[in-house]
């Protein structure tokens, strides 16, 4: 059966699992290679719920910050658009031109079409002053985050930048793994698989502890990770 599955998914794709088992055991084993493939597929499937909750929550938080800073018509605000790096600016403008108009409901269509990399770009040190420190927006949008008290020998601005970068690091990790899952690539060999749930929990807990508790009761990734195959 193992050889039939290998032929089904292609030898090149299956070779990653064969090699991993051979490295772990010191010899090849087709049966365990298939089990590893199955474990990877199960984990990838369970990741979809955390990815969904994370991205929807993050984009809503950032949209709120953008509205507070640039008005409800923030997609057309030149100051915001010009704050984006050239490559991301081009991607944003194309999405905006296709999906946005200053009418009710249009913002939601645009938010759903923006790539996660654009949201990640809103969590940078350069964006912090205008988007998160301005009028203490970070505290408003993430009311449970440890924004205060500010640690000794640290300014408020430095502290908020640090918290924003924490979210950016988590977003980068989740974005890369989400892309691998979307393209049916192996994730069993990525240490970042253990960072996904903590990253989602941090975002949700800073935003809404009740929602965070609901998420922890319903996510199934942790159970799969409790029994790694290799």
* Distance from first to last alpha carbon: 21 Å
| Overall form | globular
Number of strands: 0
SSE ordering:
HHHHHHHHHHHHH
Report on this model:
It is a single chain. The protein has 230 residues and is mainly α. It has one domain (47-225). The protein has helices spanning 2-9, 11-25, 30-70, 78-83, 86-99, 106-113, 116-120, 128-133, 137-141, 156-182, 196-207, 209-218, 221-225. α10 crosses α11 (196-207) and α11 (196-207) packs antiparallel against α12.
Short structural summary:
The chain is mostly helical and 230 residues long. The chain has one domain (47-225).
Core attributes:
single chain, 230 residues, mainly alpha, 13 helices
Walk me through the topology.
Layout: H1 2-9, H2 11-25, H3 30-70, H4 78-83, H5 86-99, H6 106-113, H7 116-120, H8 128-133, H9 137-141, H10 156-182, H11 196-207, H12 209-218, H13 221-225
Helix pairs in contact: 1-2, 1-3, 2-3, 3-11, 5-6, 10-11, 11-12
